Amino acid sequence: MTLIKKTLSATAVAGGLAAALLGLGSAAAYADPPPPDMSVGDPVPPNAPPKTAEFWDGEPVVWTHMWGGRWGIWKNDMFLTLSSNINTGGG
Predict the structure, then answer these.
(1) Which pLDDT score is estimated for 84?
(2) What is the dihedral of CA 19, 20, 24, 27, to 10 degrees?
(3) Dihedral sign, CA of 19, 25, 28, 30?
(4) How many C-beta atoms surround the C-beta of residue 30 within 10 A?
(5) Predicted confidence (pLDDT) per residue in 62-85, tens digit
(6) 70 partner at 20 to 30 Å CA-CA among 2, 33, 43, 47?
(7) Which helix (H) or strand (E) holds 75?
(8) What residue segments make up the domains of the chain, in order of their start?
(9) Do 62 and 43 form a contact (C-beta atoms < 8 A)?
(10) Which helix (H) or strand (E) is 80 found in, with range?
(11) How confident is the model at residue 47 (pLDDT cuts 50, 70, 90)?
(12) Nearest to 63 by CA among 77, 79, 76, 75
């Protein structure tokens, strides 16, 4: 009887280690968040300059808070700015 208990215990430990090595049971903890909806952009502040256009190069023009706040487009996972920084007026 003790041989069966030891065998079952060793099998359970080995199975747990194998599952931990494969990452089973922890997929939710390490899953990437869904990508942001790049066609929506951030909320536009009241001091934002007028929108330059609705679309540019086939992409919707959106507001971003990056670099002090600017209008631009998302193209190939990169943000291309179309306006100046609203705080400094610079590029």
Answers:
(1) 81
(2) 180
(3) negative
(4) 7
(5) 998 888 889 999 888 888 888 887
(6) 33
(7) strand 70-75
(8) 1-31, 34-91
(9) no
(10) strand 78-81
(11) confident
(12) 79
Question: Residues with Cβ < 8 Å from 56, sequence gap 6 or more?
Answer: 73, 82
d(CA 8, CA 88): 69
pLDDT in tens, 24-33: 555 555 556 6
Q: Is the pLDDT of residue 3 over 80?
A: no
CA dist 25 and 43 (Å) reads 37
Question: How is 22-74 classified by DSSP, letter by letter?
Answer: HTTT-HHHHPPPPPP-TTT-SPPPTTPPPPS-SEETTEE-EEE-GGGSEEEEE
